[in-house]
C-alpha cells in the first residue's frame, strides 16, 4: 500500500431474513448510514467499511452453517460464536454503542466486559446477534498498540 492511499476497507455481505429489521438495527440502533439498495439488499457504511445485508430468508432459519451457527469457542471460560464479524472501536465509542444496544433492549450473547485489565492488550468486548441471527463482536483497546501484542 502506498503511503498516500487511505487504509484498506473491508466489504462483507451477509444474509438477513428481513430488510426492514436490518435497517432498524444497522441504520437505526447502530446509526450506520445507508448506501445503495434494492428490493433484495442494502449497503451500510459500517464505520467506514461496506457491509451488505442480502435478503435470504431461507438462510436464516436456524441453519448451522449460516446465521445461527452452533460452533462456539472458549473465551475467558465463556462460549462465543466462532462465526462472527464486528469492529475495533475507540473506547468511548464502544461504551456509547453498548449503551445504545442496552437502551434498545438488544440481548447480548456476552455482556460488555473488560479482558486483561491492567495488562498489555486490555480490551473491552461484547457479543450479540442482529435480528437475522448474525453474530457480531465489538471490541476496544485501552492502547491501540496492544491490538496485536503477544
From TrEMBL:
Pfam families: Glyoxalase. Signal peptide: none annotated. Residues 8-141 form the VOC domain. It comes from the Bacteria. SUPFAM superfamilies: Glyoxalase/Bleomycin resistance protein/Dihydroxybiphenyl dioxygenase. Coiled coil: none annotated. InterPro entries: Glyas_Bleomycin-R_OHBP_Dase (IPR029068), Glyas_Fos-R_dOase_dom (IPR004360), VOC_core (IPR037523). PANTHER family: PTHR39434, VOC DOMAIN-CONTAINING PROTEIN. This is VOC domain-containing protein. It comes from Maricaulis salignorans.
Amino acid at each position: 500500500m502506498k503511503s498516500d492511499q487511505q487504509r484498506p476497507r473491508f466489504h462483507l455481505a451477509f444474509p438477513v431474513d428481513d430488510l426492514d429489521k436490518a435497517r432498524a438495527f444497522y441504520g437505526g440502533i447502530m446509526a450506520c448510514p445507508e448506501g445503495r439498495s434494492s428490493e433484495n439488499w442494502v449497503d451500510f457504511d459500517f464505520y467506514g467499511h461496506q457491509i451488505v445485508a442480502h435478503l435470504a430468508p431461507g438462510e436464516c432459519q436456524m441453519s448451522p452453517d449460516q446465521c445461527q451457527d452452533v460452533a462456539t469457542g472458549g473465551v475467558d471460560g465463556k462460549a462465543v460464536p466462532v462465526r462472527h464479524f464486528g469492529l475495533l472501536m475507540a473506547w468511548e465509542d464502544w461504551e456509547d454503542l453498548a449503551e445504545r444496544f442496552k437502551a434498545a433492549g438488544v440481548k447480548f450473547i456476552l455482556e460488555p466486559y473488560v479482558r486483561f485489565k491492567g495488562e498489555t492488550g486490555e480490551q473491552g468486548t461484547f457479543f450479540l446477534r442482529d435480528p437475522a441471527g448474525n453474530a457480531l463482536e465489538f471490541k476496544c483497546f485501552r492502547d491501540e498498540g496492544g491490538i496485536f501484542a503477544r
